[in-house]
Write a structure and sequence with these properties.
single chain, 3 helices, 73% helix
């Protein structure tokens, strides 16, 4: 091989290094793309959860039915004049 050909080959290899092994290499880009996809999936699940919580907050702010339901199920409260009946569960 002549010197100019060797120098050009080394220069070409030096230019290819960042593409295959450097910070912005194909492998790094693929890994970051996978992380981006998984984060988007997490974000989509959280958006659905947030939308449900937002609807619940709006319902609690505007309607007394939701507040009454929460008081009954979460706190065990009963209305005046009501009788609370609890049935035991059977274990199998």
């Amino acid at each position: 091989m002549k010197w100019p050909t060797l120098i050009l080959a080394l220069l070409l290899a030096a230019l290819q290094y960042p593409l295959w092994m450097g910070k912005g290499s194909w492998g790094t880009v693929r890994q970051l793309d996978q992380q981006l996809r998984s984060q988007r999936e997490v974000n989509a699940k959280l958006e659905v959860r947030n939308a449900g919580m937002d609807a619940e907050v709006r319902d609690l702010k505007t309607g007394y039915d939701a507040i009454e339901e929460r008081a009954r199920y979460d706190l065990g409260m009963v209305k005046q004049g009501e009788v609370f009946v609890q049935l035991p569960t059977r274990k199998r």
